[in-house]
Amino acid sequence: MRDLWDEDLLEFATEHTESAPPSADEMPPWNILIVDDDEEVHIITRLVLRDYVLDGRPARLFHAYSAQEAKALLSSESGIAVILLDVVMETDDAGLRLVRWIRDDLQNRLVRIILRTGQPGVAPEKQVITEYEINDYKSKTEITDIKLYTAITVALRGYRDLRSIQEHTRGFGHIIRSARSVLRHRNLNEFFSQAMEEAALLAGIDHEDWNTAPGVRGICLRAVDRGYMVVAVRGGYEVESGTRLPPDLSALNHPATAEIIAQVQGKPGIVFTDSEFCAHFQSQNGEYKTTLLIAAPGPLTHLDKELLHVFTSHIEVSYENLSLGQSIETSQREIIYTLGEVVESRSQETGNHVRRVGALAELLATLAGMDETQRSAMRLAAPMHDIGKIGIPDSILNKPGALTEEEREIIQSHAEIGYSILRSGKKGILQLAAELAYTHHERWDGSGYPRGLAGQSIPLSGRIVAIADVFDALTHTRVYKKAWTMEDALDYIGQNGGTQFDPELARRFVQSREEIKRIFNKYEEG
Questions:
Q1: Is 389 a catalytic residue?
Q2: Does domain 347-522 have CATH number 1.10.3210.10?
Q3: Residue span of the signal peptide, if any (predicted)?
Q4: Could you say which of 204, 451, 463, 486 would form a disulfide bridge with 502 (CB–CB 3.0 to 4.6 Å)?
Q5: Which has the closest alpha carbon to 111: 158, 154, 146?
């Protein structure tokens, strides 16, 4: 075994100082920094490591000839795995000071530091190992090519393992943050839209990558009758959220996506390709089925897949709980709609009136700046606005001609009757329903009933339902009138803003023609 500083070896090394750079398809190299003021040390180290490979990755050497040069390089290059560091350079303790700077100022605990010195008396091994956070200590006189090779390999394995632990820690921390972000959403569509964004981050996709990186795409599909509904979509697909797709996904114009999605249908599970992640979620009762696909710009690493597995498990549990809550809410909504339809049928109005009023109330709640929870509550409570009509005689409700003063007073009492029925409810939805049932016939100018409230003293829920109820009544046939056109009804709402209706709400509502048309198309009369 030859000494590393053998003269013949040095002469050979001077002629062969550089190895060929790694090809583009090789694994990224291990970055090793040599810090020494002796050029011969750099030359010999280059020779010994010129064919070095660990885990399929070659070595790439960086060179610094003083502690100051090393600081500059370490400040700009964050991926150094191992430092071969001399002690005595511009000063007797320059290397030791550099160790302190790396650990304390740069806060780099990952890089492995091998201290090499030709003057062990200046830096005694026991003292240096105890007082400085280094990983190995070598005297230059004892280092052979094999010992250097061994020391580098041990150091790189330590760096690799620490880096893996760090990446796992960061990844699991991101999963916790991502899960919290997703769980804030109580609506299944919004839940999965956020889940897709968070899964993309775990797959190494930044927000700007959706529009710039080739091959990056994401889509979330919910199973519906005779196909799928696009819940969320990003990247290279030619469809929008809300689009209905056939079972074979041919309208997606992306056979690769259709193929991988087909692999996960039928039961919950995950499929990975080289750069794609696809997960299928299904509630236990089979009522809700959702598929999520992410395509990354490059191959998914083992860590990427591991983190996506864990994230998917979190989403799966949350999805089941949310699906159960959604089923309960759907049942509650159907009960409310049925109750509203029973009341409306007594006045010979169609059941879709309460559904349209609920949807219009949700739209107006959005225009008023309400949050997701408040909007959902308005949609659920608004169909109960006329529940007090259950106490009004049929002869008055269905009278085609003008009402007498006494009959008018009786029919106006439905607001108070509805309030009396609903106010005893302990749930927030029933309390909200009681409020809007009581106040949706109040007018902005104070001339409404039952209490003659005016302006901002009318609860927002009542102001919202006032517009939704009147607009729907105007645009549909009643026993006492023919249906108005949508434009005529919108003109009426706009003209009566500031007298009958909240002027700002009326203005925003009139400007929302397209959203109103979508609601009417969904709940058109049969």
A1: yes
A2: yes
A3: none
A4: 463
A5: 158
